[in-house]
Design a protein that fits this description.
105 residues, 3 helices, mainly alpha, single chain
Length: 105
Amino acid sequence: MSGAASDALRRALELSRELKAVADQGDAQAAMRLDAERLELLKFARQGASAPDADERLMLQEIAQLNDESLGLLEHLRRSKGRQLDMVAVGRRALIAYSSTRMHR
């Protein structure tokens, strides 16, 4: 890769680390912003790409690993929020059922 493409790849790796940290904190908005910025850097690195050397391949592997971990964290967050919403709906239905029973007494 060219020097600029390799620099873009390094910055994409830094953003991948930041993305994992914000995903771990549950900040989906920041994760989306970092992912968009990282995508542009990866596109730029790919445009200037010749065959990546060993260091660049390692960076790409780490980016892929961090991406998988970040996706897992965000998926866990999404499912957790879904369960919370389900519990709110159950509670709401129970409240409605209890309220209508109490009114008839």
